[in-house]
Structures are given as structure tokens and as C-alpha cells.
Specification:
Elements lengths: L8 H4 L5 E7 L3 E7 L6 E8 L3 H15 L1 E8 L9 H15 L7 E5 L3 H11 L5 H27 L4
Parallel strand pairs: 1-4, 4-5
Antiparallel strand pairs: 1-2, 2-3
Helix pairs in contact: 4-5
């Protein structure tokens, strides 16, 4: 799969479409969506991973329901900037969504270093959530954090109208 630069994404997404943010883990996939102006990310849900076919179908349904035109997928880069087995797993997921599940929308990767821990610190400190409640929202909140980082980068690159 040819990698797309995050700054090229707005030109590849049809007008009035949204972006889907994904935080893929081994057991779950956190899901978030953007607004149509690519300014705000909102958490949507956490998908409990089962078989690829089922996961892909659920993502397709979300894409159709939320009018999605592109995907920003969190890439778990190591702290030193290198890519390990988790990055390969995420790249394989993206490739399989395109090749096997037939996703035709662009998929870009966004460095998600520290996203889950940043969200967890917020949920503990600012939101004062219990461990049980944090577990229910951490993945979709991390997906929103990842997507918001990408949206902020896109907005900084695009001149104001």
C-alpha cells in the first residue's frame, strides 16, 4: 500500500465527507470521527476485535453511517522513532482493509506515541474517572486524540480562507 502524506489527505477526500480516526489495538479498535471541516474530532465507539471480516464489516458500516471519506490510523511508533511489530500489525490492518475488505477511501498513518497515556492522565486528573469507567472510554478517547492531532496538523498547513 502506497503511503499517503497527512497533508495530501484533504485533497483526496470528497467534499462534505468526514475523517475516521482509528486507534487499533490487539483486543479493541477505538473509533472517532471528525466534523466536515476537519477541525474537531469526537469519540464514537470501541470495537471489540473478533475476526477480521467482522471488524472490517463494522468499520464499513460506521463509514457509511458517518459519511466517511478518509481514515487516519494511529501508528504506534517506538519512542526512538523506530517501528516495531505493533507498527507492522497496524500497517497490515490498513493493507487488509484495502486489499481484502475493499476499502476505497484513503488511509493515512499518524504517529500515536503517548496518545493512550495522555488520554488516561486526562481521564484520571481532569475527569476524575474510576478505573472501571476509564476502561469503557479509553480506546475511543485515544482515537479522538489521534484524529485531533492529525486535524490540527492539517489546519496548520492549510491557509485560512
Amino acid at each position: 500500500m502506497q503511503e499517503i502524506d497527512i497533508y495530501d489527505l484533504p485533497d483526496l477526500v470528497n467534499k462534505n465527507k468526514r475523517l475516521l480516526g482509528l486507534d487499533p489495538g490487539t483486543k479493541t479498535i477505538g473509533v472517532a470521527v471528525s466534523d466536515r471541516d476537519f477541525k474537531v474530532a469526537s469519540p464514537v465507539k470501541t470495537i471489540k476485535r473478533t475476526k477480521f471480516k467482522n471488524d472490517a464489516q463494522e468499520l464499513k458500516e460506521i463509514c457509511a453511517d458517518k459519511n466517511i471519506g478518509g481514515i487516519v490510523m494511529g501508528l504506534p511508533v517506538n519512542m526512538d522513532g523506530s517501528e516495531g511489530p505493533r507498527c507492522q500489525s497496524v500497517r497490515t490492518l490498513a493493507d487488509n482493509l484495502k486489499r481484502i475488505a475493499g476499502f476505497e477511501i484513503p488511509i493515512v498513518f499518524w504517529d500515536e506515541r503517548m496518545s493512550t497515556s495522555a488520554v488516561e492522565r486526562f481521564l484520571i486528573g481532569e475527569a476524575d474517572m474510576t478505573r472501571k469507567n476509564r476502561a469503557k472510554v479509553i480506546d475511543k478517547a485515544a482515537a479522538a486524540y489521534i484524529l485531533q492531532g492529525a486535524l490540527d496538523a492539517i489546519q496548520r498547513k492549510i491557509p485560512f480562507p
